[in-house]
Specification:
The complex is a heterotrimer. Chain A contains 15 helices and 23 strands. Chain A is of the alpha+beta class. Among the domains of chain A are: 229 residues, no CATH class; 63 residues, Dna Ligase, domain 1, CATH 3.30.1490. In chain A, strands 3-23-22-19-18 form a five-stranded mixed beta sheet. Chain B is mainly α. Chain B folds into two domains: 152 residues, no CATH class; 163 residues, no CATH class. Chain B is globular. The relative contact order of chain B is 0.12. Chain C folds into two domains: 102 residues, Immunoglobulin-like; 153 residues, C8orf32 fold. In chain C, the strands form three sheets. In chain C, strands 1, 2, 3, 4, 11 and 12 form a six-stranded antiparallel beta sheet that branches. In chain C, helix 2 crosses helix 4 and helix 3 crosses helix 4. In chain C, 49% of the residues are buried. Classes of the chains: A alpha+beta, B mainly alpha, C alpha+beta. Chains A and C meet through helix 5, strand 8 and helix 11 of A and strand 1, strand 3, strand 4 and strand 11 of C.
Chain lengths: 471, 317, 269
């Protein structure tokens, strides 16, 4: 039985209202103009230097992530619901983090197993007892969503550490506005360009108590060889803050300092884009050359804020994910607005049996994996691949979860043959500081291969501009 | 400004200036090889260039005998040669990518454009590429970058570090080019004042794009003294040591004013400049041109090290 | 008993370094078994950084020294009044749940031999406390106290295979064996009044196991006992590296040499 997919533009042969302008737009664009525009977009991307190198794939470090010009559109009312659901989730995840590094009420209440939290690799005992400024551990929460019907949205996973990709949200819009200004005059599309300003305000709002002046905010990058370096540099530039590497910072006395041409300058808030394990060789991995020795002591004694806070990863683990609706009920006393995808924990023997019997229908992921690696998409795999994967799951069941293969919605996409539906997901970026804010938009990733459900850029995915229409 | 950012800016321009010098050296070599054989002098022009650019050993290891075609490849395309034009442009562009946010779009375009064209050149058959095409190409991109920097960069500390890179590298490179002529190119002292000598001086002037400027300024016969005056002491000559150090001083003073603090780098630059201002061409030849240049190259290196210590290392309090 | 401590550590760098940052777990916290009467930690030429009590109840204090510097001395001195609590850590304020001490580290990863040792020891135990005692006794039997047979990076598995080691190895082996049996366990660093009263070259270390109903209980397999009034407890962690009294990093290419003296004396009352 072939599954049916929700096409976001066409329903029962009719164009859905938010896509009405786009129908005229494509009708008025002959193939030659389209390829001209596509080349122009590519040239623009290359000129601004936005590239995405993929770890472990080698090849061209200046590779472009494919950009599809056909936008993805949400109505104001569709977005209003997403906005409430995403903010609700971001608040609950932060409440959970403050709790598990504090009294652990949710564990004591038996709503989540202690093992999942305290034996989790992402649980940092070194930060137990800390309540960061404003009670926020995860300041930028990326929530990956998929759609299966007009009103059916599912959360695929949460990213509480350092979700990447927001530069594409901003650049995709920039390029669309430059190439198709008329489209933006006709449709009333809510802007996303306040994101850097809101991010900066969010970060400044969580400055430590010891900071008594306008806080100095920096972005800490692993360096220019990192695949997301472009994004780090782009955000620093738009926020007007310094982009630093570990070697640019040092600890002296109660504070962290930055090396400048005018001497040391105190740093108050660090938006770090490196993993916990690397931020302080004194506290975590001693072989890390990327971090700042002594940073954790300054953090713990209130001399600097680190965003996201070390230890935030325990909330976005794929096994903990199952319990997010529970967190929403427990901490906020609310009903979850966005649903989770039903998830089987291979670590539980009865669920493992089910998973192994139904591999061909399921998507199986590593608990700690990311980027679409180490996963099995049952319906798209051969018998041999399924059998091989079953052995991996059996060898270490606790490391895997399984979910049904979701009928991801499609959006029209420019392909060689013209326009065809391709599967998409969505990652909005929720900012949590003094306030909880969400710009109307996000990163839409699209699986460019016909029939593919894997949208990761490392696996042949592309990106689209994401529109939210005004009322 | 972050010390590492200042360091990256400084190296963008040092590498681009170095690329330009490499192109000028290639030009010198090509012109010299057109000269009729002088017996002893003939084979050694290309050898001299390798010596001058400090790459003789690396070249010999890779290619053996200095054949013009190989030297062109080595100077222009070879990534194994850290001073090749491709290496310099690659490194300048990498430094720029790291501090993309500190550069205007025009400056980034100039560098990134050069880099992307470079990669296109690398893919073309060498037989299609005349040496003059390659050297002109390099000079054009170097000029474009210079223009973009002057035309679009904010006049803040970043601009000063970009200029310090240019002028310190230029001071060093001009001194080395001069030294090559006198110490390396000429096969023996008996050639001083000979036709070969004069031809080489003229070639050097051409390579410095200063041939006509020189004649405007001095007129008459080309002599070693006039050239030394023009390339070392003349404050109107754009690539002279005096001009380079004067510009270095200007930018260091701007930094001192902006930061409200004078350092050892300012005092050193002023001392070097004062000496150049008081030196007469006869003093240089009394000391010996080679000796003078060797000493000057060392002074410039000391100045560069001071700039590194007080601004780029981030260790200064 | 009142114990008097003098613990001096000197780091020397063969070429001066650009700066040093250290993180210290060198201040005993109070509980029913120990009360701090007088205590000081001094770093010559050092700038004290922020201090805080971590989730495990230990006082952590950082120090930084501005370079160039070629040697650094850390001097710890003080008096602590101790009582024999048979190893039970009562009245110690902390809020990390014991489940957080079940994860393996590189030094405490359990291999087959460690699992078997753990399994054999707990089989037939009357209750969790008995199990903990049996585990500690098994480790004392399995690993002989032989100074110099192991080094700072020897793992529990390696020490057990050699059947020789020092207090650090005994603690690691006990921790690994206990965790393999789902008993939370952690590494403790501190001081011990030696029977001979001679100054030692290193501080002491033992392990704590979680016993439901009692809480954390210390075991010192190297001395076949539970910590009593001769012990001063400084701090704890997942393993020796995590619980180290002094962690430090010097910026610079110089290589480092270390000189430690520890003198513990009982002060007559």
């Amino acid at each position: 039985m072939a599954p049916t997919y929700f096409n976001e533009m066409y329903q029962n042969g009719q164009v859905r209202p938010p896509y009405r302008h786009l129908e005229d737009w494509t009708a008025a664009m002959p193939a030659e103009l389209r390829s001209l525009k596509q080349a122009e977009a590519e040239a623009l991307f290359r000129r601004i230097g936005i590239t995405f190198a993929v770890y472990g794939e080698g090849g061209d470090p200046d590779r472009l992530i494919p950009f599809d010009m056909f936008p993805r559109v949400f109505t104001a009312s569709e977005w209003a619901r997403l906005d409430r659901g995403i903010k609700q989730r971001a608040r609950a995840l932060n409440a959970f983090l403050v709790d598990v590094y504090g009294r652990g009420e949710i564990v004591r209440a038996g709503r989540i197993p202690a093992r999942l939290v305290y034996q989790n690799e992402a649980y940092e005992r070194a930060v137990a007892g800390i309540v960061p400024p404003r009670g926020v551990y995860s300041h930028i929460v990326g929530i990956d969503l998929v759609r299966t019907g007009p009103d059916d949205f599912f959360v695929l996973e949460d990213n509480c550490r350092t979700p990447s990709g927001v530069s594409y949200m901003l650049e995709n819009r920039e390029i669309m506005m430059r190439m198709f200004p008329a489209l933006f005059r006709e449709s009333r599309i809510q802007p996303v360009d306040r994101y850097p300003e809101i991010l900066r305000r969010t970060l400044a709002s969580v400055a430590p108590a010891k900071c008594d002046s306008d806080p100095t905010v920096v972005i800490l990058t692993p360096g220019h060889f990192n695949s997301a370096y472009y994004e780090h540099s782009f955000l620093a530039d738009l926020m007007g803050v310094d982009l630093v590497e570990g070697q640019d910072l040092f600890v002296e006395g109660e504070f962290v300092w930055m090396r400048t041409t005018e001497g040391p300058k105190k740093v108050d808030v660090i938006y770090r884009r490196i993993d916990d394990a690397f931020i302080d060789p004194l506290c975590f991995r001693p072989d890390s050359m990327l971090g700042v020795p002594g940073l954790m002591d300054v953090y713990r004694s209130g001399g600097v804020s680190i965003c996201s806070a070390p230890g935030a990863g325990v909330a976005d683990d794929k096994a903990v994910y199952t319990f997010v609706p529970e967190m929403i009920r427990f901490y906020l006393g609310e009903t979850p607005i966005l649903q989770n995808v039903p998830t089987w924990q291979c670590g539980k023997s009865d669920e493992l049996t089910y998973v192994l019997e139904n591999l061909a229908e399921l998507v199986v992921k590593e608990v700690h994996g990311s980027g679409g690696y180490g996963m099995l998409v049952g319906p798209k795999s051969t018998k041999e691949q399924i059998a091989a994967f079953a052995e991996r799951v059996k060898a270490d069941p606790g490391n895997y979860i399984a979910q049904p293969t979701l009928a991801l919605s499609t959006v029209p996409t420019f392909v060689d043959e013209g326009i065809a539906p391709r599967h998409v997901d969505l990652r909005p970026y929720c900012l949590v500081g003094e306030r909880v804010e969400l710009v109307p938009g996000g990163l839409t990733r699209v699986a460019l291969k016909d029939g593919s459900l894997v949208v990761n850029s490392s696996q042949g995915g592309g990106v689209k501009d994401t529109w939210v229409l005004a009322e | 400004m972050l010390s590492r950012t200042a360091d990256n800016l400084y190296w963008i321009t040092r590498y681009m200036e170095r690329a330009e010098t490499m192109a000028r050296l290639l030009d010198v070599g090509a012109r010299m090889s057109l000269l009729p054989s002088t017996g002893e002098g003939y084979h050694s022009e290309w050898e001299s260039l390798l010596q001058a650019s400090g790459t003789a050993e690396g070249f010999a290891r890779k290619y053996g005998d200095p054949v013009q075609r190989n030297i062109e490849s080595y100077f222009f395309f070879d990534r194994d040669n850290p001073s090749s034009i491709a290496s310099c442009i690659g490194r300048a562009r990498e430094n720029a990518r790291i501090v993309r946010g500190a550069l205007t779009t025009q400056v980034w375009d100039a560098l990134n454009g050069a880099f992307q064209e470079m990669r296109a050149l690398e893919r073309r058959p060498r037989s299609e590429l005349d040496l003059s095409v390659l050297t002109d190409w390099t000079m054009r991109h170097s000029a474009q970058l210079r223009g973009a920097i002057d035309g679009t960069q904010l006049r803040k500390d970043g601009w000063d570090f970009l200029n310090l890179g240019y002028f310190l590298e230029r001071a060093d490179n001009t001194a080395r080019l001069l030294d090559v002529k006198y110490y390396v190119l000429l096969p023996g002292v008996e050639f001083v004042g000979s036709g070969l000598d004069n031809y080489q001086w003229t070639t050097l002037l051409r390579a410095m794009s200063a041939h006509r400027a020189f004649h405007w300024a001095y007129g008459g016969e080309v002599t070693a003294r006039k050239i030394a005056d023009f390339l070392i002491l003349n404050a109107a000559s754009p690539r002279s040591l005096r001009t380079s150090i004067e510009a270095t001083t200007v930018h260091l003073d701007r930094l001192a004013r902006g930061y409200g603090r004078t350092t050892a780098a300012q005092s050193k630059a002023r001392a070097v400049l004062a000496e150049l201002a008081e030196t007469r061409v006869s003093d240089i030849f009394d000391e010996g041109l080679h000796e003078f240049l060797t000493r000057f190259i060392r002074e410039v290196a000391t100045l560069g090290a001071l700039v590194h210590d007080v601004y780029l290392s981030g260790d200064q309090r | 008993m009142i114990l008097s401590v003098l613990h001096v550590t000197t780091y020397r760098y063969d070429t001066p370094v650009r700066g040093v940052v250290q993180s210290h777990r060198l201040t005993p916290s109070g509980f029913e078994g120990q009360k701090v009467l007088r205590w000081s930690v001094e770093v010559e030429g050092g700038l004290p950084g922020g201090g805080y009590r971590d989730g495990a109840g230990d006082w952590v204090q950082s120090h930084s020294v501005r370079g160039p510097v070629s040697d650094i001395t850390v001097r710890v001195a003080g008096d602590v009044e101790t009582r024999d609590m048979a190893g039970v850590l009562r009245g110690h304020r902390e809020h990390v749940p014991p489940e957080a001490y079940l994860r393996e580290t590189v030094a405490t990863a359990a291999d087959v031999a460690l699992r078997e040792l753990g399994q054999a020891a707990v089989t037939g135990a009357r209750d969790p406390l008995d199990a903990a005692h049996r585990l500690a006794a098994a480790v004392s039997e399995a690993v002989a106290y032989v100074p110099g047979a192991t080094h700072a990076h020897t793992t529990a598995a390696e020490a057990l295979a050699r059947a020789e080691g020092v207090c650090q190895d005994h603690a690691h082996v006990l921790i690994a064996a206990a965790r393999s049996q789902a008993i939370p366990a952690r590494y403790v660093s501190g001081y011990l009044l030696a029977a001979d009263g001679i100054p030692h070259e290193a501080a002491h270390a033992w392990a704590e196991l979680w016993v439901p109903g009692l809480g954390w209980v210390g075991f010192d397999p190297a001395n076949r006992c539970c910590p009593d009034e001769r012990f001063i407890r400084l701090g704890s962690g997942d393993d020796a590296r995590d619980a180290a009294p002094i962690k430090g990093i010097a910026r610079g290419p110089g290589s480092e040499s270390l000189d430690v003296t520890v003198a513990i004396q009982s002060v007559q009352q």
